[in-house]
Each structure stands twice: as C-alpha cells, then as structure tokens.
C-alpha cells in the first residue's frame, strides 16, 4: 500500500461517526464538561476561538483556516479570524485586543509571521491567561514548557529532507546537468530557510548543475511572476529547471512560463499540495508538490488550544514530544496526484480532532541546516 493511500484511509472517519458527533453539537470531552459531574448541567466557560494567519486569499492559509473552522463547528462555536497580512505589529496588536476583550478567555492558534514575533504573542497570552498554539515560525529558544500550560504547543514541519527529495527529483529530470533557478519565501521564515538549505545540500551531489540565481518572492504569486519573468529575460534557455518554495509562487512562475510558451517544457518542483498545483502535477506542468496537510494542522492546532483551555488535558503533564512536534510531509507526484486530489481535495477530509498526535512525525529537533 502506498503511503498516500494509507494516509488517506487512516485520515477519513466514517460518515456516521461524524454525523453523530455533529448532532451532539460538542466534541465528546467538551459535552461532558458542559454537563459537569454526574450529568448535571453547569455554566459554560467556553473560550473564544481564534486563528491568526496571513491571508484567506492564499490557498494554503485558506486550507489552514478551513481546518480551524471545522474544529470550531465540532464544538458548536464560531471562529474569530485575525488576518495580519504578513504584518508583525498587526497580529500582535490584534491578539492583545482580543485578550483584552475576552478577559483572557481565549484559545488561539497562530502563525506569528516572523520567528521572533512568536515570543511577544506567547507572552501576551500567558500574561492574560489565554491558551495559544503556534505553527511554523518561532525562535529555537522559545519552548511551550517554559510557559506552563498557556503555551500549549508548537507545530512545524521538517522541510529539509522533503526539500532534498524534491530537489533531487528536479535535478534528475534535467539529466543531472545544466542551469536551474530558485525562488524562495520570506527570508526569515523557517520553511524558507529549510527549503533552500535542502536544495543547496542536493546541489553538492550534482557538480554539473549550476544554480543560476536564487531570489526571494515572499510567498507571493505576483512577486514570483515578476521574478521569474526577469530570470527568463536574463538567462533565457540556460534555465533547465525551477525550484519553487511554495505553490502560491509556483502559480506566478507558471504564468511567466506560459507567456513565453515554456509551460510544461521547463520542469518545476513545488511545496504545499494546494488544489491548483496538484492539478498542474496531474497535467504534467509541475513535477511534484509536497503537502503538509494544512487542513489537519489548522484544526488540530486550535483543538489543542481549546482543550487545554477547557481542561480536557493538561499540557504540562505531556512529554516534550507532544508540545513541539512535526506534522506530516507527503510528496505528491503525477503517479499519486489523482488519488490525492480525489480523497483530500475534491471531498472534505474528516478528522477526529481529539486524536491530537495521530499524524505527528515526531518531536522537533534543532539541527542546524
């Protein structure tokens, strides 16, 4: 059984179980808490639920927050959206304002945008008694266990090895020789750093491949389009392949190639597993993309913060591997793309939001790349 097939099967709950849970209006633990001991009803102390993220227009972040909304519905609540647009000051100000409004009765999942910004957000939540889960970006010296229960967890992904896998696929596709270009994300972002490092590591194995240029396009479709157009003008047919650090930028890269009649002629590897790029993999215009299952991540990060807030579990009783952990990273090639699209995109996947660490691939480590 392929890893993708196994993952799809394990990640899908029965429709009957899902409908029964929905009919209750609560997750099982939350329902029990609402009833209190011996089934006696008590006043609800449900926290406000919020997700802080870059933009709903980006397919990756749209999938993240869709997972958050799915979890919120499972406990009969609405989700507050804190959209920061890549602005460190805005997300911190919005979190502080919501903590003030709710008196600290907040369960928050958030991407801090830049790694150093995570500390300020965590400390604001801890100071007011809120509960926060972070994803992707934090500094190496910031740890949930240093903040008791309020900093619930940090979820990230090990991009270094998957980036090596995609880079090797790209370099093999061009016959192990010639020039390639790379387009990266925000330079200070953990995934941007690791994905570039993975490419650079693999380039050491291919002395006949030259990295003609690397430019940051800040995860932006429009900026990637401009960068790719400039590279095509500068290097022309010297470009034999493109390493793209995420799917949003790949869409801009593809448009630049189409404008020159080169789409499908120059192989591209990508990252994020979004619907549009999975379709491009199916069509042969992109070699592969890597899914970090953002829908699951969006729901599970918020679920952990919520259940810590309502007392379903005590984060400080958990091992470090449950507080800083890696999510799944799944390479999708043309061979797998149709199955992935049918099972993870065309239909909404269903997850048990209380099975917190089912898809964890282990505790985070801090090996320098």
From TrEMBL:
Which Gene Ontology terms describe the biological processes this protein takes part in? Answer: transmembrane transport
**Keyword Signal belongs to the record:** yes
> Where does this protein reside within or beyond the cell?
Cell envelope
UniProt GO cellular component terms? cell envelope
Its keywords, alphabetically, are: Signal
Which Pfam family name is an example for this entry?
A: Peripla_BP_4
Recorded hits in PANTHER family, A to Z, give: D-ALLOSE-BINDING PERIPLASMIC PROTEIN-RELATED
Q: What is this protein called?
A: ABC transporter substrate-binding protein
């Amino acid at each position: 059984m392929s890893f993708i097939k196994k993952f799809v099967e394990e990640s899908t709950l029965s429709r009957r179980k899902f409908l029964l849970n929905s009919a209750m209006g609560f997750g099982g633990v939350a329902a029990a808490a609402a009833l209190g001991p011996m089934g006696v009803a008590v006043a609800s102390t449900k926290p406000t639920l919020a997700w802080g993220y870059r933009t709903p227009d980006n397919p990756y972040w749209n999938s993240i927050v869709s997972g958050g909304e799915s979890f919120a519905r499972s406990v009969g609540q609405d989700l507050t959206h804190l959209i920061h647009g890549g602005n460190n000051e805005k997300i911190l100000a919005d979190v502080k304002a919501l903590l003030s409004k709710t008196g600290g009765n907040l369960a928050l999942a958030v991407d801090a945008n830049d790694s150093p910004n995570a500390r300020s957000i965590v400390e604001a939540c801890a100071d007011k008694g809120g509960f926060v889960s972070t994803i992707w970006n934090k500094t190496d010296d910031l740890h949930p266990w240093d903040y008791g229960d309020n900093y619930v967890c940090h979820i990230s992904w090990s991009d270094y090895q998957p980036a090596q896998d995609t880079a090797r696929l790209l370099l093999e596709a061009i016959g192990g020789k010639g020039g390639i270009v790379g387009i990266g994300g925000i330079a200070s972002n953990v995934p941007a750093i690791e994905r570039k490092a993975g490419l650079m590591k693999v380039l050491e194995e291919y002395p006949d491949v030259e990295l003609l240029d690397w430019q940051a396009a800040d995860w932006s479709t429009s900026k990637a389009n401009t960068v790719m157009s400039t590279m095509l003008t500068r290097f022309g047919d010297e470009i034999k392949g493109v390493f793209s650090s995420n799917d949003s930028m790949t869409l801009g890269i593809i448009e630049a190639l189409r404008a020159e009649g080169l789409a499908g002629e120059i192989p591209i590897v990508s990252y994020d597993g979004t619907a549009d790029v999975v379709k491009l993999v199916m069509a042969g215009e992109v070699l592969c993309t890597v899914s970090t299952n953002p829908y699951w991540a969006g729901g599970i990060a918020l679920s952990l913060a919520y259940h810590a807030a309502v007392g379903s579990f005590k984060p400080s009783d958990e091992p470090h591997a449950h507080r800083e952990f890696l999510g799944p990273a799944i390479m999708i090639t043309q061979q797998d793309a149709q199955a992935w699209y049918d099972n993870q995109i065309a239909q909404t996947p269903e997850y048990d939001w209380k099975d917190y660490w089912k898809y964890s691939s282990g505790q985070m480590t801090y090996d320098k790349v």
